[in-house]
Structures are given as C-alpha cells and as structure tokens.
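Dear colleagues,

As part of the handover before I leave the project, I'm documenting each prediction I ran so the next person doesn't have to rerun anything. This entry is a single chain, and its sequence is reproduced below.
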Amino acid sequence: MRNGSGRAHENVSSVVVRPTQPRPMLGGSARQQRALSPPCPAPLAGRTHALGMRPADSDRRHLANESLVAAGYDAVYGAHSETLQALWREHACGADSPNAFEHISFLTLAELTKVSELLSLDERATLVDLACGAGGPGLWLARSAGAAVVGVDLSTRGLARARQRAAAVAMVDRSTFVPGSFASTGLDDHGAHAVVSIDALQYAPDKSGALAEAKRLLAPGGRFVFTAFEVIPDRVAGLPVLGDDPVVDFRPLLEQAGFDVDHYEETPGWRARVTATYRSILGAEDVLVQELGIPVCTSLAWEMALTLERDFYRRRVLVAARSPRRARPIATRSARLETLLRSFGSRHRWLPADEPGDSRAEAE
C-alpha cells in the first residue's frame, strides 16, 4: 500500500486559479432577477480572471475577477440542493453516473470511460486534474486505475469538498488538491503522466496560455485529455471570458503548443442534454430558491438563460493530445514537488510510458 497522509496540499503555495466545469443556473422571479442579477452571470463574470491574461489594463481586472470567481464558486459549493443534484443527474450526466463522484459537468459515464481509456493510466501514474471543482471525475479516473491525482482549482470550498470526497472514497493517500489556475498551477515541469480537464477550457481567457501550461506539466509522452465547448465568436461578442478568446477548433492551438493530436470528436447528444438540463433547472425555480437561496439561484439562472438564448456553443468535443517524447531525460524533481507528492509513496514515478512498464522498468 502507498504511504502518506494525503495532506501534501498544506505545503503548497497558493497560486491564482481557474475553477472548472460549466455551472448550472436557475431562475428567481423577475423581481429577484432585477434586484440581484449581476452585470453578467456570476460564473461568466468570475471567469474573466486571467489564466495567463495579457498585461496592461488586464492586471487590475485579473485580481478583481479572481475575487469574484472565488466568491461565486465558494457560494455554489457552499450550498446543497437535492433537487439540483437530481435534475443534473437525470438530464446532464445520466442516471448511471457513478455515485459518490458527482460533478457539475455534462460528462456521461460512457464519456468518463472513454476518457479513462485515452489517458491510459496505471497504478504508478500521477494525473493532474485542471479545474477539478469538487474532484469527482479526477478521483474516479485515478481510483479506477490505482493512480494518484493532483486537483487544481480556485474555489477553496470546492477544494475542501474534493478532499472530503477523497476521504469518502478511500483516496486520501493518493490525492491532493491545491489552489491554482489553468495557466499557473504552481506544479513543476514535466511532473505528470497525464492531465485532464472536464468542460472548462472554453472559459480560459487565454487558451494558448492554458495549453502551454498543460504541456509544461506533462512528462515526454504524457497525455492531455479534455472535454470542452467550441464557441461561435459572433454570438459571444461583448461577453466576458467567452468573448475574450473564443475558439472554434482547439486543434491548431494544440499543435502550436507542441502537442500531437491523437483524438478529436464531437460528443454525441451534448446539445440536447445542455438544453434539457438548463430548462429543467430554470423550471424548478421555486424549489431551488428554497434549497440554494436567491443570490446563488439568480446568478446561476442568468448564465443558463443566456446560454439558451444566444446558443453560442458550436460543438462539445472530446480531445486527446500527447506531449511528444524527447531524447533528453526528464528534469529532476524539485524539493517542492517532492514535498507535494510525499503522500503518494514510492510507487508513483514521474516517468511517462507509451506502454505500461517500458520506460519505468528502465528507470528502476
């Protein structure tokens, strides 16, 4: 068995972060919306924080929006609604979605299984989950393979929920959850066998910066697998975040970042699931206001209504890319990374392998 307390996150410095998965929203009354609606939906407004934002006047906005994001997602993760959870399971991810690994994304069990196949993890691998939220998919992927996971997110309550979930599914000794952003994780170069992100990359204001960070994290031969929404630029003009750097196809950016793209497909049925999920939640206003409170419900409802009205998503895609293997050896782990991963024990090595056992056997 692996040794360690699973508390390595306490030794990691805080860094700016991006939270994750598209959050739901539901409606309050017209009067509540007029009184409480922000100038843009809380999740969208918050995500104007930078994941490697450009300099100049963006710096001040970067800091302001980080606070908005943290407050908005802390509010979402600080609330609990059985109704929201049930509606999300029914319409977004499916009734067969694994219990104890709930999430607020559109990832189905079939897609989760496909992601696992594309990642090709084994029990000696370490997975980095970017924009991990409450940790559900990353923990499921790591536990299924016997691997370790490092989750990165902005929301302190989301990270706290992820740690609680890790304890509930017996993953404390193989997981750690740290604050960080898409473009600034605070983790060392070439430290991960694999990187995953679920339904979040479309919110990164600097997609190139986010992909560069994923590439930096991966050891040679490591895999980056994600689901994300392609965006129609004309329909997000003037919107924060989605309008800042809309991407209609991630492949050119992945290639520019130095990835080899192995898999790129539109996920089946995504549009019907998004529409059904948002409409069902907007229609459950009365119950959800009681369970979540007016501020959370109103901000969430605005994002959902805006998404349905503008219909700005082109496709939802499942992507697998690989960091090419290099001739030179992987850089030695730093003392900081050793501290972070001490809880994972000696079974976890930071060497990638195209086939289980090949380069790891050489290393030993």
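Strands lie at 126-130, 148-153, 175-179, 192-198, 218-231, 260-266, 313-322. Confidence is low (pLDDT under 50) at residues 1-55, 61-65, 327-333, 349-364.

All the best with the project,
I.
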